[in-house]
Amino acid sequence: MRAGLGPALIVLVQIGGEIMAVAPQAGPAASAVPPKPAGGRGAKESDPVAWLFLAPALVLLAIFLVFPTLYTLALSFNRGRAGVFTEWVGLRNYVNLLTNDPNFIDLRTFPPSGAIWNNVLWVIFYTGLVLALGLLIAVMATRVRYERLIKAIVFVPQAIAATALGVIWTFVYSPNQEQGLLNALLGVFGIGPISWLGNPSWVNAALIATAVWAGVGFATVILSAAIKSISTEILEAARTDGANEIQIFFRIILPMVSLPMSVLAVTLIVGVVKLFDLIYVMTGGGPGAASRVIAFTMYQEAFPGGQYGKGAAVAVIMLIILIPIMIFNIRRFRSEAVT
Amino acid sequence: MTQDALTGVGMAGTKPRTTSERIVRALNRTPVHIVLGLVAVVWLAPTIGLLITSFRPRSDIQTSGWWEVLGTLRFTLDNYREVLAGQGIFGSFINSLIITIPSTILPIFLASLAAYAFSWLRFPFRDTLFLLTVALLMIPVQVAFIPVLQLMRPFGLTQGFAGLWLAHTAFALPFGIFLLRNFFITLPKDLIEAARIDGASTWGVFRTIVVPLSVPAIAAYGIFQFLWTWNDLLIALIFAQGQGTRPITIQVLTLLGTYGSQWHILAASAFLLMFLPLLVFFSLQRYFVQGLLAGSVK
């Protein structure tokens, strides 16, 4: 996960147009049509100088992203132990990962386990909770005078490094009741202490809770902007017609924010697939391999483990998971460019 | 909608007319106040707890929780002194600055140049290349690690700062080009045409019109890139292999591994890691959210 503001900004940029689309009084949405180049020249003439402006960026992108992606694809068909790529193994890395590595995916038990399964849990609970809490806080905050304060409070974790988040929450979860806030609170009711990060049945819930805490502010700010774009006339009219606040929420607010919600959901899911820092800092994938996720596995197998071929295969699996989202985004972008 | 997303106007509806109406409204909202109060506590307590802990003497931390601090009002700067002098936090803080500053300036410059070409210049395959850039936005950096590492090693780039600068810059470009191009296309066409008719060169238009008018978007991208690079752990784990180049995130992680439950050390070092991003965030957040909403919505 690009912890912090990265995804927030992308969503702000993506949702910007859409917020406007649901706000009839606010003018036309941002147009994605590339403007015709200015100047009195012929329409088909090109500016050769453009390549000078593009060259540095394109060269870096080619060396650091385009070429490595293709190369990693090739490496994933190689045994690639300790950085030696001489043994072509076809699909064996993939077959081993998917059928013979219980740390990656283990379907023999129910519920299943392994990194892929943990990512499924993350997608369901992290995405669901961030959206639900974000919407709840956004809706409630619009009704009080300290709205700005409450949004700032929940947004602050966005600026905190995942490494620091890891320290903050490892402290909250500390099994020592004189130090860990959570176990101290439970101790008041005679429960515990529970080793949240050391117990395989709690560790994923504890990590997801931390990430939800860190991510809700982002959803709150986006959804709050979307709620604000709903015309006050519509709300007034509904109230005059006798609609109560619950009806207003389900009949007006929820339909009006469903588009930003879906863009947010896609962004959060992409974040889950890339999630690494928090796991690495708080549990190192443990206890055992109980909290591993896909991106953690890629790092762990390739770098400390020296199994470059296997690591490359995991990276390609990440890419394959993200390709549908990539296509979805490009399609959306193109359709905007047409209108 | 160009208003700060964190402020904005409430949608409270009509003003209450009578005192009784006001009381009824206040009662109706009591559950809202209670829930929001709880939200504030849950979102503040973990961070404030660690902040208080970072100022408590080591012996107090071991015998009582930070929430009992009112019983033992003793504060000290010893923890900060210890991590800055003895635990390598000062050196790694400086390393983080050395990594972050060029890794912020370079992508701003290169992304602006490319975004200008994509928005106002005409050349073959323009739209195809731009769509490819949008596609790169989604690519997980993990797919680049092994080849880039093998590419860097023969040049010794993993031992110094240059490899980190290049990696951070390259990985930040797709987002920067996407963001700035979407802002640049909203600039008034007439202004750019007029400058060209007056004989301004392509570079002249970029420098005297496009960049000055795009300061909010460029600043927003710069702030984002600063925070992202400062907070980065993964890219540093892969590409910062030299002893003297470790950023503060890696140093804090190392302390967490070494001192498991020595919270006086961990709390103080975590706050030194958080301090600069929070300062940037609080002093510039308005400018930054405004710039983005304006850039995307205008």
How are the elements arranged and paired?
The complex is a heterodimer of chains A (339) and B (298).
Chain A: H1 5-21, H2 50-75, H3 92-100, H4 115-141, H5 147-155, H6 162-172, H7 181-188, H8 203-228, H9 232-240, H10 245-274, H11 277-282, H12 294-302, H13 308-338
Chain B: H1 19-54, H2 58-63, H3 78-86, H4 89-120, H5 126-136, H6 142-152, H7 162-184, H8 189-197, H9 202-213, H10 215-231, H11 234-239, H12 248-258, H13 263-297
Helix pairs in contact in B: 1-13, 3-13, 4-7, 4-10, 4-12, 5-7, 7-10, 8-9, 10-13, 12-13
Molecular structure report:
The complex is a heterodimer of chains A (339) and B (298). Chain A has 339 residues and is an all-alpha fold. Chain A has helices at 5-21, 50-75, 92-100, 115-141, 147-155, 162-172, 181-188, 203-228, 232-240, 245-274, 277-282, 294-302, 308-338. With 298 residues, chain B is mainly α. Chain B folds into two domains: 19-76, no CATH class; 82-297, MetI-like fold. Chain B is built from 13 helices and no strands. In chain B, helix 4 crosses helix 12 (248-258), helix 8 packs antiparallel against helix 9 and helix 10 (215-231) runs antiparallel to helix 13 (263-297). At the A-B interface, helix 1, helix 2, helix 4, helix 5 and helix 6 of A face helix 1, helix 2, helix 4, helix 5 and helix 6 of B.
Outline:
The complex is a heterodimer of chains A (339) and B (298). Chain A is mainly alpha-helical and 339 residues long. Chain A is 64% helix and 0% strand.
The general outline of chain A is: globular
- Give the class of chain A from helix and strand content and strand pairing: mainly alpha
- SSE order of chain B, one letter for each helix or strand: HHHHHHHHHHHHH
Which sheet architecture does the biggest sheet of chain A show? none
Q: CATH H-level name of the largest domain in chain B... which superfamily?
A: MetI-like
